[in-house]
Amino acid sequence: MQKFAIFGNPVAHSKSPELHNAVFEKYHIDAIYEKVRVDNANEIKDYIVKNNIIGANITVPFKEDILPLCDELSDDARNIQAVNTITFKNGVLKGFNTDGHGFMESISHYNNISNALIIGAGGSAKSIALALAKNNIDLLVANRSGHRLEFYKTKNIKTTLIENLEIKKYDLIVNTTSAGLEDDSLPIKRDVLKSLISPADYIVDIIYGHKTPFLELSKEMGEIYQDGAMMLVMQAVHASMIFADINVDFKDRQNIMIEEAKKHILKKIN
Question: Is position 126 annotated as part of the catalytic site?
Answer without folding.
Answer: no
